[in-house]
TrEMBL record:
Acyl-CoA dehydrogenase/oxidase C-terminal domain mapped to chain residues: 248-364
Domain of life per record: Bacteria
Keyword Ribosomal protein in record: no
Domain Acyl-CoA oxidase/dehydrogenase middle: 133-223
Gene3D superfamilies: Acyl-CoA dehydrogenase/oxidase, N-terminal domain, Butyryl-CoA Dehydrogenase, subunit A, domain 2, Butyryl-CoA Dehydrogenase, subunit A, domain 3
Keywords per UniProt: FAD, Flavoprotein, Oxidoreductase
Stretches that traverse the bilayer: none
Keyword Oxidoreductase set for record: yes
Protein name: Acyl-CoA dehydrogenase YdbM
Domain Acyl-CoA dehydrogenase/oxidase N-terminal stretches: 17-101
Species this protein is from: Paenibacillus physcomitrellae
Length: 387
């Protein structure tokens, strides 16, 4: 089979991209073999992260000036999609790190000294980051709830107390960002926090899908953050393009489900037929519908990422398009996995086969930002505000 003509490869544009994709494909194949075990146990895939670190994955979006690869958003989408083809949980979890480093690179909202030190650590030691903003009482931070976590001034910095939910990567992070309310100033702020004995990870993550992301609760018991670790956040508005790591992940899962169903259709021959079920018009119709969903979503996803890369001055105005790409990709991914299960039939429910995991994992996309109603309201507001 000519690898260049595989459907999954149709967005590769250069030899360099092809080389990176091939390396990530090798990792994805290894992760796919471990995925069922981590899913079953709800365990964090430390083994996968050790492999990603060794492969230099953590430095992909780090600026070149600090030793990183400085890949584009388009490339990040491509590599994240490919990683998720092997294991959705691992891809989504590491995507938060890759995406946020890309965001910090373009917005420069961290003090440069702090950002430089973090980048060098990511390059040398595979250090990762994430922002813990969700809380039980506020719901998704993208909806604008005020954090109940509080930061109070103390000698040389801040003491932070509170509890964060959906803290993806919490089992492995040494540093992370938390959002907190500063009562003295009646404002919300972000702080870079180091993991100490004042940080407790409470293993609450026991979910339907994406069971290996380690998105536990993190309890902060008066954690000290030096004054320099308050992130003032005056960076430029990059439109939030980095969040495309999310739809890329769900596209990867849908592609894995599609390929599983295609292989099944090519090989499964019940004894009442003379040839495999691929010959049945009803099966061909379902395969065609899968292609419609995937091709539509992927063309929009890659085109939007490419626009973001090529139109830096226009990035703040691409928010609605970026949201639409996520909305379409996640909803289409759910349909694709559903169609794949219909093609495979009753055995698709088996815990011994990966399809039922894809089916559970892909549903999580609906609950990652930006939220559906937010995207639809944004599109409506854009239309109504046209003169």
């Amino acid at each position: 089979m000519d690898m260049d003509h595989l459907f999954i490869n149709q967005y590769i544009r250069s030899e360099q991209e092809k080389a990176r994709v091939n390396r990530v494909s090798e990792l994805a194949a290894v992760f796919a073999r471990r995925a069922a075990k981590h899913d079953q146990e709800g365990s964090f895939p430390f083994d996968n992260f050790a492999d990603l670190k060794e492969a230099g994955y953590m430095k992909l979006t780090v600026p070149k000036e600090y030793g990183g690869d400085e890949i584009s958003l388009y490339e990040m989408v491509m590599l994240q999609e490919r990683l998720a083809y092997g294991d959705g949980s691992t891809a989504l979890a590491v995507g938060w790190h890759l995406g946020q480093v890309l965001h910090l690179r373009t917005s420069r909202k961290w003090p440069e000294e702090l950002f430089a030190a973090f980048c060098r650590s990511a390059v040398e030691h595979g250090t990762m980051t994430n922002t813990f903003a969700s809380e039980a009482a506020t719901g998704s931070p993208s909806r604008g709830g005020k954090p109940e976590t509080k930061a109070v001034p103390t000698d040389g910095g801040w003491l932070i107390t509170g509890r964060k939910t959906f803290s993806t990567l919490s089992p492995i992070l040494d540093h992370f960002v938390v959002t907190a309310y500063v009562p003295d100033e009646e404002t919300m702020a972000e702080f870079l926090v180091e993991r100490t004995d004042k940080v407790e990870v409470v293993e609450t993550w026991n979910t339907l899908g994406m069971r290996g992301t380690g998105s536990h609760d993190v309890v902060l018991n008066g954690v000290f953050a030096p004054a320099a670790n308050r992130l003032i956040g005056k960076g430029s508005d990059d439109g939030g393009g980095w969040l495309l790591h999310i739809p890329a992940c769900y596209m990867g899962i849908a592609l894995a489900a599609r390929d599983y169903a295609l292989n099944f259709a090519r090989t499964y021959k019940p004894n009442n037929l003379n040839e495999p079920i691929r010959s049945l018009p009803s099966v061909q119709n379902q395969i065609g519908l899968m292609e419609v969903e995937l091709r539509t979503a992927r063309s929009l996803l890659y085109a939007t990422a490419d626009r973001w890369d090529k139109e830096p001055d226009n990035r703040p105005h691409l928010k609605a398009d970026l949201g639409l790409a996520k909305y379409v990709a996640t909803n289409h991914a759910i349909k694709v996995v559903d169609l794949a299960m219909r093609i495979v039939g009753g055995t698709s429910l088996s815990r011994n086969l990966p399809l039922e995991r894809y089916y559970r994992d892909v549903r999580a996309g609906l609950h990652n930002p930006p939220m559906e109603n937010t995207v639809i309201q944004m599109l409506a507001a854009g239309a109504l505000n046209e003169e």
